[in-house]
């Protein structure tokens, strides 16, 4: 393809080339990979506009990528991949409105530092801070707390370069349809270059984690969900054991959590990974491993106070397969009971499926972001995980199929960052604004340069022609 580019276009590509030739992209969990024809790192909006025009001219698909944390092929392409890591500047700070405007390539942990220096913080934050801000909002990344929305809902203004090379600014009052679609666009509408984030004054969180039982939590779910500003829990399959985490804002002095090297690093990481490696050959060990992990690490009260972002974040251990859907939060108990019944039934079969801990529940406020799983409803995100010890394969597909079947019957919507089996006609039913999004996508990307396998599989009507080369 490079021989089709003009001399000036080749020189432009060489100037912003990122990394060595032959670069292979792999996501964090090492479950998806691709070899883009070009891996580029623009530094300005003008360079992105020029890239879009070249892509249209030659029919070259174009995909931005963050840090590759999405456990799916969302960012994969064999054409042009853009790394926005060099676009990481602060553009504006409004201390009175408590907003910060940054370029799209800023990583969340960089954003946390920027905000901390200015006496501000994100109101809610997910488990990790390694994603770029654009990647986080593209998939409606979320934390937990029934009074708090996902990260997409915290955006008050953004700039996007669409598939014609047009620079478009939008907000709740300026091009509001594009705004509500672009805040969770999975890269289908264009390349977001800057965002303004609604923050709040910096705060500390007082977190308390306690053991409980699944039946008690499900029977009193209304009470549990609203028992603190931020609530999540983990269930340990094959047991009735649950660890419930609650956090509230506080003005008390810090009481930093001191981790035990033996309990958290040796038992909770190295020994756990070795046991999971063995369970690939002896899957009947998994129920005992789940019980061991609860007894050794979670069957006690843990209490600490720290800066908000340090409390929200936690160690996700090693690479894993993960599937996560959101259901109306009132349906969460039904999901857990059905999933538990299936897991226990499988345990009785000599060749039945065996699963790992945890099954995680988090709760998020409704939003008006068109493709956010929280659109029009407060939800419970339920995640199932199968760790990959030392990057080795583990069986998970039957577990995923049953889990997705249960979530679908309860009105579930999949997390966009995860690999899932919900397609065009399913999504039309699940999202009231899906048809509007598809129509807007055609307007924003008439040549299909932002279409990759993921977009084609989940967003495009099956009979829609793809115009890219």
UniProtKB/TrEMBL annotation:
This is D-arabinono-1,4-lactone oxidase. It comes from Coemansia furcata. The lineage of its organism: Eukaryota, Fungi, Fungi incertae sedis, Zoopagomycota, Kickxellomycotina.
